Every structure is written in structure tokens, then in C-alpha cells.
Amino acid sequence: MKSISLTQKEARKIILSAAGLSVKGQFGSGKEAVVKILDHLGFLQLDTNYVVERAHHHQLFSRIPDYQNEWLEELCDEGLIYEYFFSDAGYLPMNDFRYSLAVKNAFKSHGKPFTNPQENLRQRIMDQIERDGPVMVEDFENDRTEASTGWWDWRPSKIVLEKVYLYGDLMIRRNKAFKKIYDLPSNLISPDTDMAIPGNEEFAGYIIERTLRALGIASVKEMKWRARRVKDNLVTKVLDEMVTAGKVNQVTVEGVKGPLFILASQEMEIELANGVFILSPFDILNVFRSRLMNFFNFDYQIECFVPAPKRKYGYFSLPILAGDTFIARMDAKADRKSKTLIVNNLHFEPVELDHLVLEKFIASLKSFVLFNKCQDISFTKTNNKEYLKNIVKGFS
Q1: Model confidence pTM above 0.90
Q2: Which of 150, 202, 260, 357 suits a disulfide with 198, CB 3.0-4.6 Å?
Q3: May I ask the CATH architecture of the domain 298-395?
Q4: Which CATH code for domain 112-188?
Q5: What DSSP character marks residue 19?
């Protein structure tokens, strides 16, 4: 068993390169870069929050200089990527489709059986799709028998459609308004797609390899998170076997509690371009709060899930990364009527920023304004008026 020792700075370089953030354009440009990113990360988290541009587009914008939102939909239509609730809702490469079958089987095995009314509705929905084509929830009459009690109190047709989707008998794509369209898998995937269900050990090996490729350095807990929909998965057992076989190495990082692991094939000599990235809260770099604290000394939490009186930085603060250091968090909202990006709070971390970093931040802000289909930017609050003064000057 090989063990590697790293400084935190060395570890950050590996993590950022694995995330595709060593330099903007790390995977090239154009629509083919989207495919390369999905093939590398294995998963692109989707979120419906539209305060600024949605998370899946935001993550690709951060990595592809000429990114266009329509590319995701086009790649779904071309059968190169698909959407599924694997660990979370997100996009995955079609080359990995067979591994989603293990998750679908897990949903079937552990989910509540259809009630008789649900089973009747399921059969009616499936018959309608086979006969007339794809459907949306709106295609069914409001079939509530009681008034809604809240956000997750779905109507019967929505409940059945979502269960059938999770079980794999339906797939989804999105319309221009980002609403789900439910269709038969045979209409959305190529007939030569590999449909062999992976065994338990093969599935665990896939999870380990995919997680380490996307995170660079990871704990067992983080690997198991990716596999959490499959109960009694064999991640721990297979990881031990991969370490013994020399496919995975243990790694020690100063100041970070282990055990930690890294692919034996991981590139170790990495240079960062020291760009400035405005990141989505749902970016692969940010999904594990403990990693940000352990490796970057950045205590970050998305506060849209925090009660308003307890928020410190704002409803939807975006982490700002410069090189290997988080320099700020920006609570922003795109006002699409006035075409203005409203920065409610620009909170700088206690790090000193030189003129070059501020220039790069201004350039990233300008791109982010355009990405959100805005033409102007306004600032409401900051904890560093001198930095903000330079930023406002850069926009004048």
C-alpha cells in the first residue's frame, strides 16, 4: 500500500484541477467541452433556483469561456447526456447510463409500493405516453381531493410520474421553461446503449473512481455520499481492494483528518492560472462544507435554506475563488426586468487583495453580468468600501 504526504497547498492544486478550475477553459471551448466536463466529473448537479442563472448552467459557465445555455438541451436531445436523480438531481454522461440502473433498482426495492389508485393512475399514464407521446404534469386534470398543504404536497399525478421516473420506467427532459417532460426511455436513448446492470462490486468501483476523479482527494464518507441511494453498497470493501491492488493510494494532508484517498493515476504536478471564479453554491467544489473548511479554511453555507433572521451573508451568496483562495462571497440577484445584477452583499474574506486580483475579479463580474442577461450592476452593501470603490470604478 502506497501512502502519499501533501501540504495543504499541494492538495488544493489537485482538488482544483480535479474540479476543472485550475484555469478557465481547462476542458476547451464549445459544446464538446460540455461533454468532456460531464465525462470527467461524471455528474453535474441541477437546481431550480433562479435567483441568478441556474446552477447547472452556472457551473459550465465557470469552466467554458464561450458557454451557451442551449447546449445542455441540445446534448440531451442528441443522446449524449441525460438527467436523473442519481445522488442528487443532475446531468450525467450517457456512457455511464447502466450505472443508473443500480440506483433505479434501489428506489424500486426500498420505495413504498403503489397504492391501488396510484397503480391505476400509473397504468393510465403509461398507456397515454405509449399511445400519444410524452406528457407533463399539466396534461392531467387537477386530481387533488384535498387542498395542498405546502411545497412538497404533490398532487397524485405528480407523485406517480416522479415515482415511475425514479424507478426507471420513464425518463425526463426539459422544455424552454425548465419544466419536466416525461417520456419512455426507448424514445430518449440509443438502442445500442449498454443496459447491463452492474454487480454490487462493479457499482462500488465505479463510484470510487468517479468520486476521486471529480474531487481529486476524498474520504470514504464522500465516496459513500455518491452511492447513498444504494443501501448496503460495497464502497468500503471495494476501496480496500483497490488500495491493495495499487489502483488507489492513501494520502495524508497536513492539518486534515484522514483517512483520505487519491487515484494512483492522479496527476500530481499541477499549475494554477490564478484566475478568479464566481462559483455556484452547487458547484462540485462547494457541495461538502467540511472540505471547504479543511482544505481552504473557508466556512461556507448556502443560506437559502437558513431562516432569514439567522442569515449572515444573504439568501444566495456565491463563493468567489481567486487561485486557490476564497476571497469573498457575493449575495446576488438578477433583476431580469431592469436587466441589472443586484449585489445585495459583497462580503470580502480577511485576505489582502492586490490590484491584479481585483482586476481579474472585475473582469469575472462583467462576464457574470452578461451571463445573467443583464446590462448593469448595482451594489447595496459591503464590508470593504475600498475594494468596492475600485470595483465600481472598473465598471465606469
Answers
A1: yes
A2: 202
A3: 3-Layer(aba) Sandwich (3.40)
A4: 1.10.10.10
A5: T
